Amino acid sequence: MSRTEGDVTRAFVTLAGGLARGADVVDLLSDLVAECAGLLDVASAGLLLADQRGVLHVMAASSESTRELEVFQVQRDQGPCLDSYRRGEAVSVADLQQATARWPSFAPAASRAGFASVHALPMRLAQVRLGTLGLFGTTAGALNEADLTLGQALADVASIALVQDRAVTDRIAVNAQLQAALTSRVVIEQAKGVLAQQGGLDMPDAFRVLRRYARDHDLGLTDLAQQVVARQLGSSRLLEHVRQLRSPTT
Fold first, then answer.
1. Residue 84 · residue 92 · CB < 8 Å
2. Rounded CA separation 50/125 (Å)
3. Quick one: 149 exposed, middle or buried, by C-beta within 10 A (0-12, 13-18, 19+)?
């Protein structure tokens, strides 16, 4: 993959700016996985976050197929992202066809989804394990050292975003903040469902509508989602806003 130093700088400036503004964590992590897919030699990326019991949940994904595969890993309790989280170290598989014995359910499912390689990077602060960043390729092959280093740096940014204003030694505070992030994800999924049903959209498009309205109106993504779910803000207003943006000016 061809990338310039400017591409990398822009990505980190965007993410750092989001942190400085106190951007909604789900919105920020969605940007982060998109940056991973754009900067690294992978097709897509997904981010899993652990709850207080150590159970992983999908927080963000750059494609719907990646989201579904991440959910599959959690449901079947096997896969590179789970191994990476449990060990606190990177797990790289250059050819998933050679990993069937290791992950008898995950490897064939990943192949059916069109993926041929996977690289999972740990998210952690000090000794606290937070989750994992999964990088999925459509061709077999190992990531080079530069991509692995950059991928880990992006995973570290995600970790900082999750617990940016807490001491990493305060496990109770960290758990509370991680749970708040997971709760935000649930509310956003509910709002996506409302928009998808009422607007005849698929879930990725519903998420784009939600994010666009939040950004154009300087609203937190979670706050907006709560308003949509509670019917305090009609989904028709969000859908109309996006339709107006797409309409040619007269």
1. no
2. 13
3. exposed
Give the N- to C-terminal CA distance of the chain in Å, as an integer: 41
Distance CA 93, CA 236 (A): 45
245 falls in which pLDDT band (50, 70, 90)? confident
CB 86 within 8 A of CB 59: no
If one looks up domain 5-165 in CATH, what number appears? 3.30.450.40
CA 100 vs CA 75, 107, 118, 182: distances in Å? 17, 5, 13, 31
| Domain 183-246 coded CATH 1.10.10.10 | yes
> Exposed/middle/buried for 172, CB within 10 Å: 0-12, 13-18, 19+?
exposed
Q: How many separate helices (H) and strands (E) can be counted in the chain?
A: 10, 5
The model's pLDDT over 21-43, given as tens digits with 9 standing for 90+, comes to 667 778 888 888 988 888 888 99
Contact 67, 57 (CB under 8 A): no
Element (H, E) at 192: helix 171-199
**Domain residue ranges of the chain, discontinuous segments joined by +:** 5-165, 183-246
Paired tokens of 49: 């976050």
120 phi/psi in degrees, rounded to 5: -115, 130
pLDDT in tens, 67-78: 999 999 999 999
